[in-house]
Amino acid sequence: GVGCVSGADRSGYDREKHTKATNVALVAWEQLPEPIVKEVVQVLPDKGKVGKAYKKEAKAIFEHLAALDEAGALALKAQLAAGPVTLKIADTDVQIAPDMVKIERTTIKEHERKFTPSVIEPSFGIGRIVYSLLEHTFAVREGDEQRTWLRLPPIMAPVKCSLLPLSNQEEFQPFLLQLAQAMAREGVSYRLDDSSTGIGRRYARTDEIAIPFGVTIDFQTVKDNTATLRERDSMQQIRLK
Questions:
Q1: Looking at the predicted structure, is the pLDDT value of residue 15 above 90?
Q2: Which residues in the chain belong to E strands, given as ranges?
Q3: For residue 1, is pLDDT > 60?
Q4: Longest dimension (CA), the chain
């Protein structure tokens, strides 16, 4: 089978990866009706002292400290209480002195809620639908593998009817014009095939492009103003006036 539509629940994965790669927070926010008071643990590095001591490594150190969760921050605070702490940052050992960073529990008031939106990624392509239609309507005439056709329902067929003069006789032209004008007036899409190819081959060509009905103008038409109506699927023909 062919999947026409798919939906992937990406959650916040892509945004989180972009945020990590670009250091730009891709978040949404909403204003809270009432501010929320929260107790948080803040890690506040002394940028002057860290920058003077480590220069190039300073940025990586700041990012490492900013990424600490509450448990990690409290663990680092306990270690610093005993003296300098060695951290491995970007494969480099750096020593953080107690006066280089301040870790404290504080109360903050939040007026907005920030969050990383989840993403549902739909995949819906017209190509898949067309492929599915072709796969389910392509057929071969029984006993003749060379005669392929499309059995699109008439309501879905882009062209509803073919106009097929039996030959290029001049006397057929008024009847073709009359039928063409009537179909245009009624909003029936049609295709005129007045080539010199045999009528059987022209029927086969219209079948290949899913035209469900064909009207043939012949010498009998000239005599009694009737025409042959052919139905594509059954290939049955009836005479209509």
A1: no
A2: 5-11, 28-45, 85-89, 92-96, 101-115, 119-124, 138-140, 148-150, 161-165, 190-192, 213-217, 227-231, 237-240
A3: no
A4: 114
